[in-house]
Model the fold of this input.
Amino acid sequence: MIASSGAPAYPVPSHVALLHYGESELRDAVSEFLLAGLDRPNEALFCFGEPGVGERLLRNLESRVGRDLSPDYRAGRIVLGTADPDVDRQLENVIAPLEALRASGFALVRFVGIVAWNAPDFPPPEDFLWFESKLNEIISGFPVIGLCPYDVARMPARAIVYGALETHPFVLSGGTLRQNPQFIAPDRYLRERLVALPWLQDDGRAAIQARGGRTGIPAGSGR
Amino acid sequence: MRQVRFARSEQVLTAPEHFALVHHGEEELREKLFDFLRPALDDPKQAIYLCGPPGWASRLLGHLETSVGRDLRPLVAERRIILGHGDRDVDQQLQNLLDPVRELCERGFSPVRVAGPADWDVPGYAAPEDFLWYESRVLPSIEGLPVTIMCTYDAARLPASALLYGAFETHSHTLIDGVFSESASFLPADRYLKTRLIHLPWLAPDELRDVSSTWEDRPARGRRSRKR
Done:
């Protein structure tokens, strides 16, 4: 399963963090991942991200294969999904297409969800981390490979530590797919990690100080 | 092989070891520093070397003194705790680490515990790619010595590239939120030097580099020369 040369051999289902540096590495890795499915009629492609990101991924793919993919899009074999600042709605925006693709009989769905951090059209970081962890439970019921690209050139370190590493059982970096020892299983992540995210503690302390030292409900998503 | 215990957590490491503590902010650093170094204060056979960018060794000592509630200057005076510092020249920085560590080992201390914060692209300190070279050289340099080195990476302050290319790729193990685990991304020194260091993305020629990269916002800086 762990591959270091050629296309990585992804388990199915799997949830993989792609660590990349900048757009060019992203384009190459995502195109390779999606192209492998494009030639197999029983596989579907699902591109997801902030508004416009799915369309951009599709255009990149078209330019890579040199043909118009709108027939596949219209036929429902390529799906474009959009993130939502409300994380419950975002989760629904992922689950509903996965269910539809499964009902259509596709043997495998290649899902790419471009990660954003603290962005206006995206859930807040702590909500997004809940989503990432929850996704492990969700995709266990689908024939899906979920690839979540994290841009090391743009993201803060906390996104990599608490997001890419702690919520993904697999990491793809430098073309090598590895099992990830830093992964925390969803039940533990949601129970222990998410409620103790250090910046929420900092916010809580700051709020207490702002209230003159009186204790109260700390900041946090409450999920 | 020498076992290295922690004060509060149940971790037991085997020296030599070079691991990355990934923490969030100074308060967690203080806690984890205490956990790692306290056993050396209680055992006269153990010694400590503190290092990092200029000024950090004294700062770490201050954290430790606050945690244990006593003045540690007598231990500094007898060189059971040595305060060192990094250097903008990484060959010198490696020497600054190895000289005192070897001195402590030769004086019979075992294990020798080393702690030092990583920093990234700051004035007066090694350039990131030089610092990564240094990090990749640490483990081979302490082979056979009863030494455990904890490099601290602050996720609240450092860029993601410092964590990926530094903490995870140049350390065989990581300590995150009290959990000690293998780093799946670790590259042994010879492989790191041959395959990673020469391909660091921000060293790529301009025409290959993503123009939207955050590095574009930084002042132009050529690769620094080394004596190697």
Remarks:
- Residues 2-217 of chain B form a domain with the Rossmann fold fold (CATH 3.40.50.300).
